[in-house]
Amino acid sequence: MSDAVPWRASALTLFPDMFPGPLGHSLAGRALARRVWTLDAVDMRAFARDRHRSVDDTPFGGGAGMVLRPDIVDAALSGQDDGRPVVCLTPRGVPFTQAHAAAFAAAPGLVLVCGRYEGIDQRVIDARAMQEISVGDYVLSGGEVAALVVLDAVVRLLPGVMGAAASAEEESFAEGLLEYPHYTRPADWQGRTVPDVLLSGHHEAVRAWRRAQAERITSERRPDLWARRACQPPAPAGCHAAGAAVTRSDERIKR
Fold this sequence. Notes:
By secondary structure, this protein is an alpha/beta fold. The chain has helices at 26-33, 70-77, 98-106, 122-127, 143-155, 165-170, 203-221, 223-230, 244-254, and strands at residues 7-13, 37-43, 56-57, 67-68, 86-95, 109-114, 131-134, 188-189, 192-193. A hairpin with a 2-residue loop joins strand 8 (188-189) and strand 9 (192-193). The longest helix is centred in the last third of the chain and has 19 residues, at 203-221.
């Protein structure tokens, strides 16, 4: 077991049994068992003050649903004041990106507040300077699944989690591009063959093909990412241009 201080994650939730969930398996699970990182699921209902263990109430101004109370969320956060970033998972947050994942991986850990119902009282979000983050333009039943997504993206960037550093650096978004297609055996499957260049043994030609494919797929499927790349200055010799936030984060990892 390593003497290094593990990266510490805390999930504030009404459903602690949802953790670690899929993060208990594969790369993240093995790293969790080796204490490369730790995960605490904090039951916010434990901080309720009445016999019904109430954690929510009706919204001021009317409307459907219930809102998590600020005093309950604040009390649950009281044991998490150790300098880690605090994230509120919400569909109105800024989109979660690989740059966020890299920044969180460089921090000592992360506190994730999982919303439910209509969300969390804005006053505690502001008072605790939470970062409001969304994992996509859709609505989930709660923040737990979103928290698992964020943790999976972050944990795989921690030192010692992935088998090869190049694997993390070459994947989708590491250079602001979507990933190129992959092929394996058999070389001919139901009449569909592998591109000849991948069988050629010419490494530079393979790299050029993969680069061209990544650029084509990104321009077709994610014009937002492609437009962001077009706004960047030319890359230095030996480097590829990327979105500014992503580039800075990746350089932090390499250092």
